[in-house]
Amino acid sequence: MAKKKKKEEKDVLKGVTVTIMIIAGLACFGSIISTQATLAEKREELHELEMKTEEIKSQNEEYQRLFNADDINSYKEKLAIENMNYAYPNEIRFYDTSRN
C-alpha cells in the first residue's frame, strides 16, 4: 500500500513538473515574440529618426551657407517670396486653383 501511495505521489509530482515546464516554455515563447515585435517597432522608429536627422542636417547646411554668405538680402528676398508670397511690384503670379 505504501509503495502504491509513493508511486501516486511521484506521478502527481511528475505531472505538476511537466505542467510547470510547459507553462514556463509558453511564457518564454510569448516573451520572445513580444520582444521581436518591440524590436521591429524600435527599428522603424530609428529609421524615421535617421531620416529626420538627414533632413535637419540639410537644413542646417543651407542655413550655414546663408549665414556665411555676406548677401543677407538675397536670403530675405527668398523668404519673402517663398514663405510670405510677396511679389515684385510689376510681377504677375499665377496660382493653380484647381487643387484644393
From the structure above, extract its key features.
rod-shaped; 2 helices; 78% helix; 100 residues; mainly alpha
CA gyration radius, whole angstroms: 35 Å
Largest sheet: none
Helical/strand content category = mainly alpha
Q: Quaternary status of these chains?
A: single chain
**What distance lies between the first and last C-alpha atoms, to the nearest angstrom?**
90 Å
Q: Given the C-alpha coordinates, what overall shape results?
A: rod-shaped
Spans with pLDDT under 50 lasting ≥5 residues? none
Mean pLDDT: 87
Q: How many separate domains?
A: 1
* Annotation, overall tally of beta strands: 0
Order of helices and strands: HH
Q: Estimate what percentage of residues fall within beta strands.
A: under 5%
Q: Could you explain how this protein is built, in words?
A:
- The protein is mostly helical and 100 residues long.
- It has one domain (2-82).
- Helix content is 78%, strand content 0%.
- The longest helix is centred in the middle third of the chain and has 67 residues, at 2-68.
- The termini are far apart.
Short description, anyone?
The protein is built from two helices and no strands. With 100 residues, the chain is an all-alpha fold. The protein is rod-shaped.
Question: What order do the helices and strands come in, and which of them pair?
Answer:
Elements: H1 2-68, H2 72-82
